[in-house]
Amino acid sequence: MRRFNIIFGAAAMVLPIAASAEVICALGGGPSAAKPSSYNSAADERPSPDTMKIVLRVDAAYAPFCLPKCPEAAMFRNPTAPNLMLAVYPEGGKMVYAPAFFSSVYGKYGEAGMIALIAHVYGHAIDETTPSNWIPTNWNRELRADAWAGCAAAKAGLSASDLAAALGAMSAYPPPSQAVWGRRVPAVRLGYTHCGGETAKFDAASSGTKSK
C-alpha cells in the first residue's frame, strides 16, 4: 500500500511532474481542461485564502476517520493544472488546481461543489491510509474516492440544496476513467449514508443530477 506523506496546506516544495511522478487523479469535464502532461510546476503558487477555508472544511470532515491524523497534502494553484489533480512522488505529493476551474465551479455550484471535488481527489489519499472495510474491495480507486467524498459530504453537514450542488459538481467534472455518473452514484451514496447522512436526503439531491 502506498503511504502518503504530503503537506496539506501552504508549506511546500515544488515537485515537477517527471517520470517518477504518478498522477493519481485528474478531474475532467469541459473542453478547456488541460491534460496532466501540460502541467508546469514552475507556475505553482500558494492557494488563495478562500480556497484554503474550503480545504479546511474538507480536512475537518475527514478528521474523525484518521488516526493518529489524516495524510497531509500540499495545495497549490497553477493555471497549467488539469482542473484539479493529485500527484504523488517519491519525495511526497501535492494537490494542484487551476484557478479558472475553481472560479467556474464556484460560480455554478458554490462552496459545496468545491468541497465535493476536493473531497474526491483527497479521498484517494484517505483511502490509501485509512482502514475502510465498509467499501467493497472490488471497487476501483475512483469509486473508492467517491465513497469517501460522500462520507465527507455527510460530515460537512451540507444542506439539501448544497448536497444537490455538490453532486452536480461531481457529475459535471468526473475522473476520465470513471466518467459515467450513474455508476458512481451508489458509491457516493454508500459513503454518505455510512457516515451519518440521511438516505432520503441523498436520494432527493441525486435525483436532479444527470446520469451520463
What does this structure look like?
This protein has helices at 49-62, 99-129, 141-155, 160-172, 181-194, 199-206; strands at residues 22-26, 74-77, 84-89, 92-97. It is an alpha+beta fold. The chain has one domain. The termini are far apart.
Q: CA-to-CA gap between the ends?
A: 32 Å
Question: What's the alpha carbon Rg, rounded to whole Å?
Answer: 16 Å
Strand content of the residues, in percent? 5-15%
Largest sheet: 4 strands, mixed
The backbone outline, from C-alpha atoms, is globular
**Given the structure, what is the number of helices?**
6
Summed over residues and divided by their number, the pLDDT gives a mean of 86
Q: What structural class results from the helix and strand content?
A: alpha+beta
Q: What is the total domain count?
A: 1
Helix content bin: 40-55%
Low-confidence stretches: 1-19
Quaternary class: single chain
Order of helices and strands: EHEEEHHHHH
The strands making up the biggest β-sheet line up spatially as 1-3-4-2
Number of strands: 4
Descriptive tags:
four-stranded mixed sheet; disordered N terminus; alpha+beta; 212 residues; 4 strands
